[in-house]
Predict the 3D structure of the following.
Amino acid sequence: VQLVESGGGSVQAEGSLRLSCVASGITYKGPCMGWFRQQPGKERELVATMEGYGRTLYVDSVKGRFTISRDNAKNTVYLQMTSLKSEGTALYYCTTGQYWLTEGPVFEYWGQGTQVTVS
């Protein structure tokens, strides 16, 4: 499985960015997709996830401002980010995995990350 992110960059506070992640090599059905981020010196945290049937989950701090979506025909997942704040500065990672009944989504594969800087 390969995940390639793009769309990061520098933006002023209250600006917008759209991250993209193209996935290849996924063989399991109904993959869960997600975006995590990591700030320097901090642990990686969940930003948004989407299960195979479309159910989404967001961290409270981005609700109403970020939107995760996917285009199955293009094997691409997006993260539309609006009203960005300085605390949004981080390395954003795309991830994918399977959904397990007993555990929920288990993310196994990760991209290299794309940097977002909000000033």
User: Anything to note?
Assistant: The CA atoms of residues 38 and 44 lie 4 Å apart. The chain is about 0% helix and 55% strand. The chain has a mean pLDDT of 95.
